[in-house]
Amino acid sequence: MRAALAEGEAALARREVPIGCVFVVRQGEENVAAEETVLTSGGNETNEEANATRHAEIVAIDRLFARVGPSAKDLLASSELFVTCEPCIMCAGALREVGVRKITFGCGNDKFGGCGSVITVDPDADLRAGLLADEAVSLLQKFYQRENPQSRDTLAAK
Amino acid sequence: MPDANDDDFRQVLSREHEALEKRRRRAAAGLETAPPKLRLALCATLLDKRDTGILLRALRETPSCALPEDLAHLRRIFKTPNDGPVKLLLCCSENPNDCTLPQGLEAMRDKLGDPEVIEIPESTPVSYEEARSWTMRYWPVNFIKSRAGLSLKPGLQVLDLTQSDRVQAGKYLRQVTALSASHQGKDAALIVEPNADVVVAKSLDTTTEEGHPLRHAAMNCINSTCARILQTRLSKQADAVPSPASAAGSRKRAKLDEEKHDSLAKETGDLENDDFPGFDPVNTYLCTGLDAYLSMEPCPMCAMALLHSRVRRVFYASPNPRRGALGSCARIHCHEQLNHHFQVFTCADPKPKES
Ligand SMILES: [Zn+2]
Ligand SMILES: [Zn+2]
């Protein structure tokens, strides 16, 4: 989650809604000190791309596909997502498409949340909420206190 | 949709609102109206019609006769047909056997016949026709427009398509189904600028070709549209000042997406004007004001992507009973807490696609 927050910080520096994520694979057996590798990561790029669908999760997934091609799907299916804010309905749908079931998020997303807040897109997802939520929220607050030059309604970019 | 005269669409509303609309339309068409939910009330016949005014005042001033807020559609007086006796609604009764005059009304006893228990419509009528029909059958009710529907955000309201809307929507919906049919039934999507009546972007599902599970038709179409908008904006900026290094990456991506779009346009034999007459990419915020046409009802990802992109209206040809998010499995556009809303239409008589 620290790495996801760092992606969020980076997004903030680019004047984007500061949400970040990492997809992680664990090697080794469960409960044994597993080795974690970051498969791919991303932060919001909605303003830069003038595209409201460029959320952190989509950006990270696209990056992996661009790097390794179609095998990205298998890699993602065995991965786990850490994201600073609850995935929205679109991203929750995308995660279901690529087969990511293990999702840990920081703060909830009561406007767009697709992991319980508005609807539950994937009832089979293994969800964990609230990890470092305060830090995710204060990152978002930093952004909203600052003026957002591109979007009329800053929430649109979430 | 074989013929332009068949352009008939059904708006996808929330389940609650859909039921309400159905009732409204049936009643307006003169079909039998839905029976209201009934409850018991106490009424009495006036012995002398000239006492109506006195009694109405007495009812107004007697707290135990007050009608609850949700029964504001009920009238107090029932003038029975052919100049027959006048009946008064005294109060709503909790106990069906209790026919005693409400407390505080005892002084009026000599002006009223024996109270009787009747059934009155508890539901609020949704149209004049419904109110009239209930009035005939049960007890006089008023149609109060402001109470008839659910209070809805502007984007969630029922929208009657104009004739020219229907013609345009029919045209593009046929175009998108034809595009899908000419590509082995792959999902297809169009984004249209409705005032200029031009296609801004046109896409197919490319999940198999690209080996990328997110490349659904609607996502591709949004990406194409945004790429075009961004590309135009960046080249306008480049004309004025040298482009900043940070924009180079997105410019490259925008260019790639645009090339993909053009190759599809060539492939489908439909070359569009690059200048988009009537469409101003520089001042377009996301997909504000644009309409989306889909051969198939979108999945949650695509539906929400359209919503995030501020699309104005969504039209789809076939429902997707397995995972459609705009009518079949979910109606995500009906959630009040979302910050943007669009209207969703589908064919009035959809033919489900076998897959
Ligand atoms: Zn999202
Ligand atoms: Zn989709």
TrEMBL record, chain B:
Belongs to the cytidine and deoxycytidylate deaminase family. ADAT3 subfamily. Residues 237-261 are annotated as: Disordered. This is tRNA-specific adenosine deaminase subunit TAD3. Pfam families: dCMP_cyt_deam_1. GO terms for cellular component: cytoplasm; nucleus. The keyword Nucleus does not apply. One of its GO terms (biological process) is tRNA processing. GO terms for molecular function: tRNA-specific adenosine-34 deaminase activity. Residues 209-345 form the CMP/dCMP-type deaminase domain. It comes from the Eukaryota. Signal peptide: none annotated. Keywords: tRNA processing. InterPro entries: CMP_dCMP_dom (IPR002125), Cytidine_deaminase-like (IPR016193).
